[in-house]
Design goal:
The protein has a single domain, classed as Pnp Oxidase, Chain A. The chain has four helices and twelve strands, in the order αβββββαβααββββββ. A seven-stranded antiparallel sheet has the order 3-2-6-9-10-5-4, with helices on one face. Strands 1-11-12 form a three-stranded antiparallel sheet, with no helix packed on it. The structure holds flavin mononucleotide. Flavin mononucleotide (FMN) binds next to strand 3, strand 5, helix 2 and helix 3. The site of flavin mononucleotide has 18 residues, from strand 3, strand 5, helix 2 and helix 3.
Length: 170
């Protein structure tokens, strides 16, 4: 049986990936978690979208640079979710160091990769569309770095869940 529920719960009740976006511009870099991320087409060109708040410092760096890195998180980044609450890049010199995230150099964009994720996507922004209080960015993946030994995690209802990619049920 269904129960009728308030529409804002929609966002919590849609299972999603857990992503970590990095961006760099004009001598500064920063990162933010993202759950509003989606692969759109394998292409070529390979296209992803992310839904971002324009007030986040990382969003502003990505907007200014026209590029970002989207890391597909593994279990190694799960504990960073709690540690990230209340941290804002604009008020900190190095938000990576504050939570123990290690930068790795990217190959085609200035934003850094993150060590220990399932994958890191180097992305160039192609377009931007309004979506309520967010902006949806459409971006081309120009390089992909994959570590199959670090499986991805899922985000649902404010929690991060592990799953076994070797045991599909459908
Ligand atoms: C698990 C999790 C998922 C998040 N997903 C998004 C998202 O999809 N889009 C967004 O704009 N902010 C999202 N946020 C919020 C930003 O990560 C948060 O506002 C961050 O503090 C911005 O930091 P900055 O100002 O240093 O960039 C999420 C936060 C958490 C903890």
């Amino acid at each position: 049986m269904y129960e009728e529920a308030p529409t804002p719960l929609t966002i919590d009740l849609m299972p999603a990936g857990l992503f970590l976006m990095t961006a760099a511009h004009d001598g500064r870099d920063n990162w933010q978690f993202v759950v509003r991320g989606l692969g759109i087409t394998a292409g070529p060109p390979t296209i992803v979208t992310v839904g971002l708040s324009p007030s986040n410092f990382t969003t502003q760096l990505a907007e200014a640079a026209g590029e970002f890195v989207l890391a597909v998180c593994s279990a190694a980044q799960a504990s960073v979710v709690a540690a990230s609450r209340g941290l804002h890049g604009r008020d900190t010199e190095d938000k990576f160091a504050l939570v123990g995230l290690q930068r790795l150099p990217a190959t085609r964009v200035r934003a850094p990769l993150i060590a220990g994720a399932h994958a890191c996507l180097e992305c160039r922004i192609q377009g931007k569309f309004p979506a309520g209080d967010r902006q949806i960015y459409v971006a081309e993946v120009v390089a992909l770095h994959l570590d199959r030994a670090a499986p991805p995690v899922v985000h649902y209802d404010h929690h991060v869940f592990a799953f076994d990619p070797r045991a599909p049920i459908g």
